[in-house]
Design a protein that fits this description.
The chain is mainly alpha-helical. The protein has one domain: Endonuclease III, domain 1 (Orthogonal Bundle), CATH 1.10.340. The protein has 4 helices and no strands. α1 packs antiparallel against α4. The longest helix is centred in the middle third of the chain and has 16 residues. It is globular, with a radius of gyration of 12 Å.
Length: 82
Amino acid sequence: MNNDIVQMINEWNPIEIYPLLEDEYYSEICKIYEKTKGTNSVEELELAEQIHFVFAQSFKKEFDKSIEECRLIAEKIINVIK
């Protein structure tokens, strides 16, 4: 797995977990990483929607970030994997 993606998601800390453990979002990061692996053509909006879906599924009402916030993270992830 890409450590840069782990670091980005942990810095974002979308559920605002304190103290945050290094592997707190491990299963969500794995799902997001799988979406980016093996392709250079992943679209920013598509990845943002995937990020939003993954966290909404995992954390339900605790996850209240907008698709726009997810788009900003998606943009950073795409820049790292290129």
